[in-house]
Amino acid sequence: ETLEVMDRLIKKAQYDVRLLISTWEKLRNQASRLMAEQAETAQLAVNVQAAVKEMGLDLQVEKVSDLKTIAQMGVLTTPGLAVDGKVVVTGRLLSVTQVKKLLEEL
To answer: Which of 11, 21, 82, 84 is buried most deeply by CB count within 10 Å?
Structure first.
């Protein structure tokens, strides 16, 4: 009977360890994804500024980092790009050429 109790305790401890490892891996993956999204957002801002400059446009480029504001704009996946308050791209990184084409079409 004592061996059965010890066996149950060991199995529970193993389960707890697996659960902790699983939780830690999920957190690590979320942090990695967030860092990647932040890098893409920063690169999109650089690409937009370069496109505006190359096109000789006099536009103000503003990078929004407040998550609440981003969500209120309807951007659920970053990076996102809005022109005159209207979201035109979400969830993908545009090159300078793609940004220029998009601005020409607006």
So the answer is: 82
State how far the Cα of 50 lies from the Cα of 22, in Å rounded to an integer: 42
pLDDT per position as a tens digit, 38-67: 788 888 999 999 999 999 988 888 888 787
This prediction has a pTM of 0.67
As given in the structure block, the two tokens for residue 94 are 């545009």
Give the max Cα distance, the chain.
Answer: 82
Q: What is the DSSP letter of 77?
A: S
Residue in 26, 37, 39, 49 with CA at minimum distance from that of residue 100: 49
Which pLDDT value is given to residue 26?
A: 75
Neighbours of 41 (CB within 10 A): 19
- Give how far the C-alpha of residue 42 lies from the chain's centroid of Cα atoms, to the nearest Å: 11
Please name the residue that has the structure tokens 């009977």: 1
Query: Residues 75-79: contacts with CB within 8 Å, 24+ apart?
Result: 78/37, 78/38, 78/40, 78/41, 79/37, 79/40, 79/41, 79/43, 79/44
